[in-house]
């Protein structure tokens, strides 16, 4: 009977699955491209309009509005925006942002997605206000002079083959910063002037890439020499374009 024990153990060992079989992971699902081809979306009637694919859930939209409220922003919800000339343009759940933070005005207000406003408010709170406090006389930032806000149009300076993030409420352009001492810092090419104005512009532009996935400005191309373009375009792996 002793010879039966090794035979039984051998049979059990053969029947057991190998470690590789037990731990082999399931195939990883393919992650869809977050930037679908614009021509396909525009010509295929069955395709979901691009702006509708970015519609926030009820929970996410409520959470965003709560964060803005806690930050002290002045805003109001707006009716959904669409464009009869281009089905992909629009904002499913837009807001009109008048003040991203207490004391910082956007003259005339700006329509955008809530998430764009949230990133703008945090960037102003965490980086722009502290940078302004280091300027001569420590002036308070009181206003952002906007360039383009929501607009159904193609990108500029790159051939215009795709729609701009402005067309989805994901982008906000800043033409100038205004301060409590009546000074104004206009966005313009500044190269090695060595003054605090250049330092401020470089500082706010560099830190913007911590909150926005695209930051363009003077030096990117001629179309961006007079403003900072900030957007939250969704990209794979949170990749960012900062130029």
From TrEMBL:
Biased segments, Low complexity type? 39-51
Identify the residues that the record assigns to the Extensin-like C-terminal domain, covering every copy: 63-243
The leader peptide range reads 1-20
Stretch list, region Disordered: 17-57
InterPro entries in UniProt: Extensin-like_C
Q: Which UniProt keywords apply?
A: Signal
Q: Which Pfam families match?
A: Extensin-like_C
Q: Keyword Signal: yes or no?
A: yes
- This one is known as Extensin-like C-terminal domain-containing protein
- Organism field: Paracoccus lutimaris
């Amino acid at each position: 009977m002793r010879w039966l024990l090794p035979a039984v153990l051998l049979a059990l060992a053969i029947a057991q699955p190998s470690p590789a079989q037990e731990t082999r992971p399931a195939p990883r699902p393919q992650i869809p491209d977050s930037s679908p081809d614009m021509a396909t979306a525009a010509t295929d009637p069955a395709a979901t309009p691009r702006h509708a694919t970015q519609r926030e859930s009820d929970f996410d939209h409520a959470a965003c509005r709560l964060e803005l409220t806690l930050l002290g922003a002045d805003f109001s919800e707006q009716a959904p925006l669409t464009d009869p000339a281009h089905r992909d343009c629009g904002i499913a759940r837009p807001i009109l942002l008048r003040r991203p933070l207490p004391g910082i005005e956007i003259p005339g207000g700006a329509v955008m997605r809530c998430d764009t406003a949230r990133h703008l408010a945090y960037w102003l709170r965490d980086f722009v206000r502290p940078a302004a406090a280091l300027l001569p006389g420590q002036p308070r930032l009181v206003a952002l002079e906007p360039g383009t806000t929501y607009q159904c149009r193609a990108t500029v300076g790159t051939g215009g083959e795709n729609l701009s993030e402005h067309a989805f409420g994901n982008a906000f352009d800043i033409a100038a910063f205004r301060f409590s001492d009546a000074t104004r810092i206009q966005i313009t090419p500044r190269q090695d002037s060595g003054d605090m104005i250049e330092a401020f512009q470089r500082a706010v532009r560099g830190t913007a890439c911590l909150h926005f996935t695209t930051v363009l400005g003077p030096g990117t191309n001629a179309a961006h020499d007079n403003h900072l373009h900030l957007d939250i375009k969704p990209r794979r792996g949170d990749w960012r374009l900062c130029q």
